[in-house]
Amino acid sequence: MRKNILFISKLFLSICLLGTASCEMRDELRHRMPGNTDKEAIGGFSLDLLSKEIGSRAGNVVDSYVIQIVNANDEVVREYDSYAELQGGENVIELPVGTYKVRSASYAGGEEEASINKPYYFSEKEFSVNAGEVTSLKDTCKLNSVVVNVNYDDSFLDEVEDDYAVTFTNGTGVLTMNRDVNGIAYFRTSPTMLIAVRATTKNGTEVYKAQIMSSKDGTSLKPEDKFEINLGIKDTIPANPGIPDNPNNPNDPDNPDDPNGPDTPNNPGSPDDPDNPGLGGNGHFDITIDVTLNGKDVDITIPAPDQPTPDPDPTPDPDPTPEPDPSYAAPTIVGDGFSLSQILTDPTTVRVNITAEAGIQSLVVTIDSPILSDELLGAVGLDKSFDLANPGKNETALKELGLLGNDPVSGRTSQVFDVSGFMSILSQLGDPGPHKFHLKVVDKKNRQESKTLSIQFTI
């Protein structure tokens, strides 16, 4: 009986100690929050982080991942330069009761639009903190980028000079690979991408090709999508086609089976002569671009050369001889520091000033470029023709590209058309142009002015 009483006493004491420890944990969480006396206001959080990234860095790759904890208002309440820093501190992160998100990423500053050998692994997970309790969360970061890997066929490397350039864009970021810059490319996701290849063959022929890359079903590209690209080059005109094989000596001008003799300076063989096309020559080399997405062949679109674009402005042409209104000056379109009658070469800053004292009714811009095709512009949500005063579905893209501010253009008496942000992308896409922006402004008195901004690059 005495033993039973002793056992029950020990059991009761253990329960009390456990209860005291639990109370102490809640009290500790409460008292660590300065000025807080409500024991229901504080809880804890712990993170067990994993990643699908493998083989690129030694050791535990997640140790260098950056960690952010944000509250319901998307405000950062805790931030750690690395997961190792978080793990090196206290095991439990104290937080006020509420709903949070933990963001883990392979590098700080958010995903870059385009990078080489710099994958972006990311995860965002929501969790709740309850009073006096510790929320334990296990999370795994996954690749958040579109992957592009380029392979060069022997025909390409053997045939072209070392000055070749392979340029990619997702519509906002641009990345160029060449002999000295190569590796695995990573891009922020986008509806489609563009590849542009420029090279010079060993016989001096300049070759260029651009293609749109997209998913086979037309859906937007997704994180972890991987493009494998194989580049080659071929001569579209075979050597001396149509000349029969000569079992004798084809280079002997006296050979009766070869009455024309060999090609000489007076008989060089010309691609312009259908009876004697010769050896390929300028303009007969073609770059081949074979593309697979996630191991499957995909349809590719070659941007077509721009055709003359009809005036998209739905505003009917005003009376060609409107009544003059002395109270308002006619609209004007003037280059900022340059004349629109000239072609700008290799510019970095390009602004055009538009005025309309009677107020802008419409300001239509039509893009006319050999590389800025419907498909490429569509990748960033932009039509080739748009009205800055009535942007409609183009509004979001125009704002993201910096072509439109938050204030409406309609009714304004002046507007700056600034395409400086386009210059870096255009210059790297490999097509010298000219790239034209046709501008047409109509004021509230139905008077109009039209000018064209022309830009070209030295490639």
Topology of this protein?
Elements: H1 2-31, E1 42-51, E2 66-70, E3 76-80, H2 83-88, E4 93-96, E5 98-105, E6 114-116, E7 121-129, E8 134-143, E9 146-152, H3 154-159, E10 165-169, E11 174-177, E12 185-187, E13 193-200, E14 206-213, E15 226-235, E16 285-293, E17 296-297, E18 300-301, E19 332-335, E20 343-345, E21 351-355, E22 360-368, H4 374-379, E23 385-387, H5 395-400, E24 414-418, H6 420-428, E25 435-443, E26 448-456
Parallel strand pairs: 1-8, 9-15, 20-26
Antiparallel strand pairs: 1-4, 2-3, 2-5, 5-7, 6-12, 7-8, 9-12, 10-11, 10-13, 13-14, 14-18, 15-16, 16-17, 19-21, 21-24, 22-23, 22-25, 25-26
Structure characteristics:
single chain; Immunoglobulin-like; 6 helices; mainly beta; 459 residues
Number of domains: 3
State the CATH topology of the largest domain.
Immunoglobulin-like
Shape label: flat
Residue windows where pLDDT falls under 50 for at least 5 positions: 1-37, 239-283, 304-316
Q: Judging by the overall fold, what is the CATH architecture of the largest domain?
A: Sandwich
| CATH C-level label of the largest domain | Mainly Beta
Distance between the termini: 100 Å
Explain what this protein looks like in three dimensions:
With 459 residues, the chain is mainly beta. The protein folds into three domains: 26-143, Immunoglobulin-like (Sandwich); 146-236 and 280-301, Immunoglobulin-like; 332-456, Immunoglobulin-like (Sandwich), CATH 2.60.40. The protein contains six helices and 26 strands. The protein has helices at residues 2-31, 83-88, 154-159, 374-379, 395-400, 420-428, and strands spanning 42-51, 66-70, 76-80, 93-96, 98-105, 114-116, 121-129, 134-143, 146-152, 165-169, 174-177, 185-187, 193-200, 206-213, 226-235, 285-293, 296-297, 300-301, 332-335, 343-345, 351-355, 360-368, 385-387, 414-418, 435-443, 448-456. A seven-stranded mixed β-sheet has the order 3-2-5-7-8-1-4. A six-stranded mixed β-sheet has the order 6-12-9-15-16-17. The radius of gyration is 33 Å and the shape is flat.
